[in-house]
Amino acid sequence: MQVADKGSTTSLNGQDLRVGIVQARFNVAITDKLAEACLAELAALGVSRKHIRHVKVPGALEVPVALMAMADSEDFDALVALGCIIRGETYHFELVANESGGGVTRVSLDHQIPIANAILTVENEAQAWARAEEKGRDAARVAIEMANLMEDLT
Fold first, then answer.
1. Domains in the chain, ordered, with CATH?
2. Mapped to the 3 state alphabet, what secondary structure does 27-84 carry?
């Protein structure tokens, strides 16, 4: 599969790519749906199950440190962050959303590895469910597209 945009074409062929997935367990039913959709899409894009490492961490704040360990290993072409942060009545939502997002970006930039950030930040559980499946699939496509792009750029 190819993605065309303004004259350039980026491959969505995941064959021989190695992908690491870090999934937060907080709001586990939703993050399991994200993971299920992501894994199914990776398979559809040709990523072999043996080339996928899927780990779980307690929550969104722990996702970046696991991503960092994966990036440090240099065993992956792309990484995926999965989580779900639902707004509550306190400032904690903003703290977790901002710090987890910043951590994911920092790992990506520091290690020059693509990370598809599918940590949902939503107002309520209904919004999370409405987005989970598509966002999981999107994360897989972003990871593969960016891994192939990075290969082309180096």
1. 14-153 (3.40.50.960)
2. CHHHHHHHHHHHHHHHHHCCCCHHHEEEEEECCHHHHHHHHHHHHHHCCCCEEEEEEE
> What is the model's pTM?
0.93
Between 6 and 61, the more confident residue is 61
Average pLDDT over residues 17-43: 98
Closest CA to 128 of 93, 83, 88, 90: 83
Show which residues are catalytic. Answer: 92
List 90's β-bridge partners, or say none: none
- State the pLDDT confidence band at 94, using cuts at 50, 70 and 90: very high
Instruction: Please provide the size of the chain in residues.
Output: 154
* Rounded Cα–Cα distance for residues 138 and 133 (Å): 9
pLDDT of residue 7: 45
Give the span between the Cα atoms of 73 and 154, in whole angstroms.
Answer: 19
In sequence order, the 6+-apart residues with CB closer than 8 A to the CB of 15 are 46, 47, 48
Strand partners, 20: 53, 79
